Amino acid sequence: LLAEKVEQLMEWSSRRSVIRMNGDKFRRFVKAPPRNYSVIVMFTALQPQRQCSVCRQANEEYQVLANSWRYSSAFSNKLFFTIVDYDEGADVFQQLNMNSAPTFMHFPPKGKPKRADTFDLQRIGFAAEQLAKWIADRTDVHIRVFRPPNYSGTIALALLVSLVGGLLYLRRNNLEFIYNKTGWAMAALCVVFAMTSGQMWNHIRGPPYAHKNPQNGQVVTTHTPAAFLDNSNTDAAITMGMVLLNEAATSKGDVGKRRIICLVGLGLVVFFFSFLLSIFRSKYHGYPYR
């Protein structure tokens, strides 16, 4: 019976890195003995009507990890990757008293899963590298993650270079704007804004996708557009306002235009500096300024 189960799982793995399971397959190949192999199960809800965007993102990382294992030289019949969708195995969710998705669980070759066999997604996140580290701790199987090449950055850079080159060609007889200090200052601020944003911090540090607020238990996500509204970007907006104030004071252009630039710069400084103070007051209670 064990040889038949292993042979069937190997056949399915040869077709697809992640084996889809319903209730019957789960009970036969994952829960029922005999079993001399480990099974990683992703419990999820991928159907569009479930509207689980986190499930789709976690599934992409899970597929990357499973493909890295399937096409590695260390691939063996000691570890299998499976998935149970709620709409295909609702009875499995009920059997395990599971009411949230996505969830990753490890089912060892012998015995029942322990607490550490459930992946702490809220604290660690669902990146393929983090899942591989967890699997190595539970199974001693080390998986080197290989991601498919992503050419979107190269294509975007090529389009940007082409756009700038085309603009310079069209303006080849009038290139005085290249020596505009204000334009270069604004461009530098845009770079600072991008490089110091919360989203860049997320990219470098790789924090968990979501975590609970210890005070009220509310789940907070870090990978959202609100991540751009951090202190560094507020400082960049204040600096942009100061640049506009300096331009209004030192330029010799039309008085009305200078007045508008001055008001815009003053508005940026006042609004974002007030916003910065409000952030400090919310983070550090008793902060004396507002």
From TrEMBL:
Pfam families: OST3_OST6
Membrane-crossing residue ranges in chain numbering: 151-170, 182-202, 260-280
Compartments where found: Endoplasmic reticulum membrane
Keyword Manganese attributed: no
InterPro entries documented for this protein: OligosaccharylTrfase_OST3/OST6 (IPR021149), Thioredoxin-like_sf (IPR036249)
Keyword terms: Disulfide bond, Endoplasmic reticulum, Magnesium, Membrane, Signal, Transmembrane, Transmembrane helix, Transport
Species for this entry: Manacus vitellinus
GO biological process, one term: protein N-linked glycosylation via asparagine
Any one annotated GO CC term: oligosaccharyltransferase complex
Record's bilayer topology term: Multi-pass membrane protein
Name of the protein: Tumor suppressor candidate 3
PANTHER family with a match to the protein in the record: DOLICHYL-DIPHOSPHOOLIGOSACCHARIDE--PROTEIN GLYCOSYLTRANSFERASE-RELATED, TUMOR SUPPRESSOR CANDIDATE 3
